[in-house]
Amino acid sequence: MKYKGQAEQDRFVLNVLKFKKGGFFVELGSEHYEDGNNSFVLEKEFGWSGIMVEENPQWFPFYGEFRKNSVHVMENATKINYEKLFEDCNVPLNVDYLQIDLEVRDGSTLVALRKMHNEIMDKYKFATITFEHDIYTTNYLDTRVESRKIFEERGYVCVFEDVKNDDNPYEDWYVYPPLVDMDYIHHLQEVNSKKYKPHESCGESIGWYELEYIK
Question: Largest CB tally within 10 Å, which of 5, 32, 61, 131?
């Protein structure tokens, strides 16, 4: 299978969820409908549906043509009323995948996470999460530190910290233990534990291209 995620986030999600069919995703920062898109394979190959949030209107016609299973919200992710959006879209209480991939340097990433934290995370849980913190370029507003505190408070476990693309650590990947097989997660962490390498921006990081998935 050819994964489309920039760092094969879709591969991570599918392996953790045992290649689940008919799942549901929420994607903040969708950009291109296919290239570098973390939900394209989920929707097209595994019959998932979800919500695609993207501020840039140029993608709207393509979403309508190529991403027909999803709801397309062409708005600023920091301005959305998530409680209303989730209710209007009949989002399941247990969502399979949440992506937050916004602009760290202007605070959008952290603002969107804070809004979800305050508005919906009491009610809705996310089996898997990929969160972009861009520590290799900026530590704006301590995004990496605060996001980790929020996810920890909410009971999420970081499976892989500071995942890097090329040599740029930029994301954390999480799971919610009640919704996944934690024996598999622990095995996955063990198999990949020695692949972390020192990095000046964050201490240690691991390349997505080095990750080994186990059956």
Answer: 131
